[in-house]
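Reviewers of the previous submission asked for a worked example of the structure-prediction workflow described in the proposal, so we include one complete record here. The input consisted solely of the amino acid sequence. No template or homolog information was supplied to the procedure at any stage.
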Amino acid sequence: MTLDKSGLNNVIHNIYNLWCFICLYLLGAYYVIIELNRKFGFINKVKTFDVDTAVTCTLEGRVAIITGGGRGIGWETAKSLIKKGCHVIVTSSTKPGPQLDSLKESLSPQIDGYIGKLDIWHLELSSLTSVLEFIRKFKSSGLGLNLLINNAGVMFAPFSLTEDGFESHLSINYLGHCLLIWAFLPILNETGFKSRNLSRIINVSSSTHYARNLRLDDLNGSKMYSPYHAYAQSKLAQIMFTFKLHRYLNEKGSYDLVTVNSVHPGVAKTALYEHVWWVQLFPGLASMVFRTPKEGAETVLYASLSPEIDGVGGKYLEDCAIVRASKYSYNESKQEELWSLTRSLLKPWIDQVENNSS
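From that input alone, the workflow returned the following structure tokens.
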């Protein structure tokens, strides 16, 4: 039996997808051991971060944006910030109107009595038009910005292209957040100057980046697609963009009151795992192994608030500590190539941001 070209391509794609699956699940097995150690301390005690103990001052007057902050790790992060007095703008892909109002009504009782403020604004990261609308809304508010926490994400989703022609993981996890960063850098820097506290950008990434490299000639996965690679690649891109952005901020000099770091929040049981088959089949087992969303928020909060990270940028963090990211992520030539490609892909929307600022 012989295969035609189409059949051969299908075989190659299936083998590629299987290989990506194996790479990520082997890495996942390692991180299950990490999570079990965190729970039971078999090897060593993992560092944790308690906001109430570590942050003694109020956050009143500070403003934070948390993408995808209406649930999971993002919401646990938001609650801790609001409790300390921060004005938190949570973004949600929930449609504006009654549905978004209902979301706020469901979340508000959880922060009853907290001294901070919660706003929930619509943001659909799969639409760069929506990202621009969010940027315009925030800029028109006149608010400063102390913290930009890029937390929203999608994982292992079937192949789909956004209205802008980008693969969904690439758009939601990476490109949309890059556009937010470009738009808000001036505000972050100005707020850092006025508040006399460095503003911070936190990119919530993933340990899955260790398992993959970038396919810079096919970021969209149009030639060969695997949901496992697409997710890991988008998270690797976040980390490499973080490293390059850190150098850019230092070299440019005009944004020296902003730091940027990326974090792996740990393997927490959240809605992010809706496309992970075994989590859906055995939710009880996942609950036993994974950390809670509140525990997952610890490293995000550490990167956002810890005095130990004040003035520190261009790092990758796990379990409230600076660790080494993948060897590939430190390749500066690949970082530069990704940076240029990202700017090129986002140019029509970056131009609109810059034109509206002038």
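The longest helix spans residues 5-40. We consider this example representative of the routine output the project will generate in years two and three.
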